[in-house]
Protein: Outer membrane protein beta-barrel domain-containing protein
Amino acid sequence: MNIKYFNKRVVLHFLLAYCLGVQPLSAIGIATGPTLGLAGYYATFDAANAKSILVKNHALQLGWFAQLNLGLLYAKVIPLFVFDWHTISQRASQLNRITFPVAVGIPLFNFLRPHVGLIFCLPLSDSTNDPNESLIKKYKEKINSCFFGVGIECGKWLLDFDFEVLFSSIAKEKIGSGLIDGKASYRPKQFALKVGYNLL
Structure:
């Protein structure tokens, strides 16, 4: 099969689906309101077999969203305080942070909102003396992420389901000291569900 011909067909099918599915947002303007989210954040390592990875901890997200509706596109920012149960050296406050997810998406079928975006992270200060502070600092330096997902609009309610992944891999030893194969790289990921309510 001719590759160029195949690529043209793929592009044409995509454009056709886009034209048929995309519907301009009925309300051009701004939507804003509170947001509550829950995430299965940063995989931990099974103590019985430190080479395996289990997603068994969660993070609570509290914040406020602002969405700019532009007809065939929309942009959204959601400043969030993230309370994370994941610990290094048994300290529960280490990964608490403020995040700034910024997304751009399109409206489909008048209720779906597929989107992509970036998450910029500001770890909260931690003044407690700890022998593993340098390890923790290196871990925090790499927790900016990218994400993709889909939103659902139900009247005033806005639901976002996202898959998030770090920009780059980090060594396992930066997640926890004493892990088997600690020099091996791992790229933390998470699923996140956020629910917002439009006050406008």
Notes: The chain has one domain: 25-197.
